[in-house]
Design a protein that fits this description.
about 425 residues, alpha/beta, Aspartate Aminotransferase, domain 1, Aspartate Aminotransferase, domain 2, 2 domains, 8-stranded mixed beta sheet, 3-stranded antiparallel beta sheet, 14 helices, globular, binds pyridoxal-5'-phosphate
Length: about 425
Amino acid sequence: MSTPSADPARGSARVRRPGFDDLDRRWLRARTGVKWHGVEADVLPAWVADMDYPVPPVVAEALREAVDRADLGYPDWSEGSPLRRTFAHRMATRYGWEAAASRVREQTDLIQCLQLLLHLATSPADAIAVQIPNYPPFLATLDTMRRRTVPVPTVDTDEGWRMDIGALADGVARHACKVLLLVNPHNPTGRVLTREELEEIAGIARRHDLLVISDEIHSELAHAPHRHIPFASLSADTAARTVTITSATKAFNLAGLRCTVTHYGPDRLLALRDAQPPDLYGTVSVLGVVGTQAAWQHGDAWQTDLLTVLDGNRHQVHKTLQTRLPALRHHLPEATYMTWLDTTRLGLEGVDLVSHVRDTGRVLLDGGERFGPGAAPYLRLNFATSQDILSDILDGVVKALGPTPDQWAPAAS
Ligand SMILES: Cc1ncc(COP(=O)(O)O)c(C=O)c1O
């Protein structure tokens, strides 16, 4: 059941969805996870990529059943977990990509997948092409593993954020890159690459014989009409050179379960991976597999509601900021629940933006600095919360970064 609510930012009634818009702030503050834990009692956290919503009921039920069965003994993954088949089936039905269950391996963390792949396929000083800005742990990994980062800028255009594919071609040729680390849909901008763009990238990968590590963790959060296309699905060539890394954690809000899958296109890399000591990289947990399995097999109705809620929220963010803070440049994200805010026109040079927004607006955002060179004047805002909390978050951001109310532009019609 849903009830309509006035939504000044959209200028129309917006439905309030139980399970998404009725979040109790005390319940959220009682969480021990990194997003809410340790944040001051009157500060709203809109940072790290966790959503505020409850666990999808089908997932909660599956987890409860496993506990009720006391099914927490050593898992039997001798033939691989059931996730391998479920992942392959999901790729076939959602994207028409014939991923092979036999090529899937489990891992606890996506960041661990990247580290393992770099360890197996590259050596220190090898050059890796990577979009900038980017998910900070990926950039930190390239640094600590002493791989050379070849930046591929994401540029701000009138049509939205665009990956600079010309810069990719130049960088790969100039630095003899071995790997392209592709994040699509893109964190932090929410851009979804089109088939034409992906084919252009595939051409560069073919000409320079790149291994492509394709992070598609945000793929199920593409907002219509944008559609995700798995990179490996483009052609036989991309299938053979792509390792796809993903999980259910973003699209079903399960990051605490620590369970991911890696699909190995290249035979040689899969053989290298299987020749590693069997326990060196750990084992996914029973609850991680049960939760992921339940989400992928039975979570689609919940996810449809989620996407409706996130679509409303992204418009709420966009319209509110356009109206009340027009100098803060940003674009409506094409996927996921983060938006990337450019403060360069606000006259705040030299200000510690995260501290300023926290202290003045009582909202905690992610600062751009860790997202790569040139990203310091940016902030990332997570809008996966209730309409009421989001309104308070936006009020805080406007209070901290914006002009006074009498200077606000009239609401866009
Ligand atoms: C692009 C991207 N990759 C990977 C991750 C994290 O994956 P994991 O928590 O499984 O390490 C995130 C989390 O926000 C992300 O945005």
